[in-house]
Amino acid sequence: MQEPIEIRHLRYFLAVAEAGSFSRAADRLGISQPSVSQQMRDLETALRVVLFQRRGKRILLTPRGLIFQEHARAILRQLENFLQELNSEPGQLRGTLHLGVVPILNVPLVPQLVGMFTADHPGISLIVEEISSTEIETALEEGRMDVGLGFLTRHSPNLRYECLCTDEFALVVSEAHPWSNRRVIPLAELHQQRLLQLPDSFVMRRMTDEICRNHRVRPRTVAEINAIETLLRSLAPLNAAALMPKIALRGREGLKLKAIPLRGKKLGLEIGLLRLSDSAANTAVGAFTSLAKVAVPKLISQ
User: At a CB cut-off of 8 Å and minimum separation 6, what does 273 contact?
Assistant: First the structure.
């Protein structure tokens, strides 16, 4: 008969995986190193797989260990939320919600969403992390995050993508830019124009590169800057422009920038929520999803 797996096995396993050492994991857990080693041997026996491999003095996870790590994190997160909800007042949600948001949407949307959500659900603790779309997808699949707010790439079959609104790329310039008074700019005119760009590790940069290829234009990249706020503040000093969704300027009115519409094809993009396909059982995720579906379109239209 297969030995049962207990919650402590999951906690000890994740501690070893994070520390890369049985002794360091034991120190963090406040137990002896032989006890941790024995618990991990028991876990491997129960699962009938090898979870760890030695690489010099470090303990690394095997491919099956990596799979187990993903599910162990998700199980413990669900258990924590379940226990908090169980001990709360009837009708009041409790727990922790880990939200990932892409940098360009953080200022325009997150302060208002967080304010509304915590007012409606004071028993839920929010953790907000600003990361890229690709990192959000990875974190969701690994169980390190509950829900994401970003651009809908629809890359992963394991995730559910829900569109909240649409936006379009525009040419963002300072009020002192020579084109600041133009009503619309044909995208073909961007050839060899001075642009500030995000690095190609950003999904948004890959989107703008595709737009330029589709229109057979090659702008002159003055600088690549990996922070949205810094990039926008650099437009005036560098007398340059940037290809950005219009929403980038929401909440940044003090920067005195303009988003000039572009004339071209396939300039639209979807903004929405990302979550695991089977996340319906998480009531905190459900509550945030319901709020975002109502609030985000209203915030965008203001």
Answer: 147, 148, 149, 160, 161, 162, 164, 289, 292
pLDDT at 263 over 70: yes
Distance, CA of 16 to CA of 120 (rounded, Å): 38
Taking the CB of residue 45, how many other CB atoms lie within 10 A of it?
A: 11
| Alpha carbon distance, N-terminus to C-terminus of the chain | 62
Shared domain check, 111 and 31:
no
Render pLDDT for 201-248 as a digit per residue (tens, 0 to 9).
888 999 999 999 999 999 999 999 999 999 999 999 999 999 999 999
Residue 119 lies in a domain: yes
Q: For residue 195, what pLDDT band results from cuts at 50, 70 and 90?
A: very high
Tell me how many domains the chain contains: 2
The bridge status of strand 268-276 relative to strand 159-174 is antiparallel
| Phi-psi region at 266: left, alpha or beta (left = phi > 0; alpha = psi -120 to 50) | left
Q: Give me the CATH number covering residue 25.
A: 1.10.10.10
